[in-house]
Amino acid sequence: MSREVHTIKCKAAICWGPEEPLTVEEIEVEPPQSSEVRLRLLFASLCHTDVIRRSGFRYPLYPRILGHEGVGVIESVGKGVTDFKEGDIVIPSFIGECGDCENCKSAKTNVCLKYPTNFNGLMADNTSRMSVKGQKLYHLFWCSTFTEFTVVDHNYIVKINPELQLAHASLLSCGFTTGFGTAWKEAKVHRGSSVAVFGLGGVGIGAIIGAKLLGASKIIGVDLNNRKKEKAEFFGMTDFINPKEIENKTCVEMIKEMTGGMGVDYSFECSGAGSVVNEAVEATVMGRGITIMLGGAEKNASISCLALLGGRTLKGTTFGGIKPRSDLPSIITKCINKR
């Protein structure tokens, strides 16, 4: 006989409005409904996307619990959930993978048509499982990890090997994996190629590691913060540019000098700054350069069409092209093996 599942009271960080400081308050988390699980969060991490959502960009939904990077243990399961059980260690994901839709069967994309990203801050039945002071709380995507307990649709969680350090598992649920996956699945970086990474945060470091593992011979990192140089070099960066310290040259000109005047084969925009997108495109080689935008650039970003007329390619990505259930296990194995 299954145990009775009750509403839980716990602590969570609440976002009450644009740019307002988060406040830690007691909330109520309801039992999981059909096709849902309730998680006890073990670790959570911060992503630039959380900062953007806090500001209200695209969907100003408040009060809200932010956070979409995390790892947790299943505390209880709702009706119809048969592939997970209490005690499983899982990563919540902001995209799903049904395995059956046209996109999932394709090798071209990881954007599932049956289980897409959720932007309305509610569960599948358009209600919330969390509240504060009697007021409905909006989720972030299907996740909301800045809380001790959360409820997630089971189609958006991935069971993980518990041998992985769980603090590291949190970083795999978005930032690092987005960068790593972009080099691996989206760009398909080839051996001996040249790469430029704009922005050396968690996403950028992931792109550097992916490019190195795939055999890139030159990996140029670009960042305004010199403190990131040493860590990026440890993970495989070969050259570093701080645009603030360049005299009489642009960042693009510096990159072309480092690549025999041609530009890099691949560039990854990981900073989130709209003005950087065009630099990333112009830094690639004419005719075959590929730029991938990962940073969630602000809404007023503009793209120069002239830079693309020379045969360059610019594309966006979701989660670095990674399919949560098909691809994450191999990344987890690489982490366990310290690759």
TrEMBL record:
InterPro entries: ADH-like_C, ADH-like_N, ADH_Zn_CS, GroES-like_sf, NAD(P)-bd_dom_sf. GO terms for cellular component: cytosol. Residues 202-330 form the Alcohol dehydrogenase-like C-terminal domain. Homodimer. PANTHER family: ALCOHOL DEHYDROGENASE (PTHR43880), ALCOHOL DEHYDROGENASE-RELATED (PTHR43880:SF38). It catalyses: a secondary alcohol + NAD(+) = a ketone + NADH + H(+); a primary alcohol + NAD(+) = an aldehyde + NADH + H(+). The lineage of its organism: Eukaryota, Viridiplantae, Streptophyta, Embryophyta, Tracheophyta. Keywords: Metal-binding, NAD, Oxidoreductase, Zinc. PROSITE patterns: ADH_ZINC (PS00059). Belongs to the zinc-containing alcohol dehydrogenase family. Class-IV subfamily. It comes from Asparagus officinalis. This is Enoyl reductase (ER) domain-containing protein. Transmembrane segments: none annotated. One of its GO terms (biological process) is formaldehyde catabolic process. Residues 35-161 form the Alcohol dehydrogenase-like N-terminal domain.
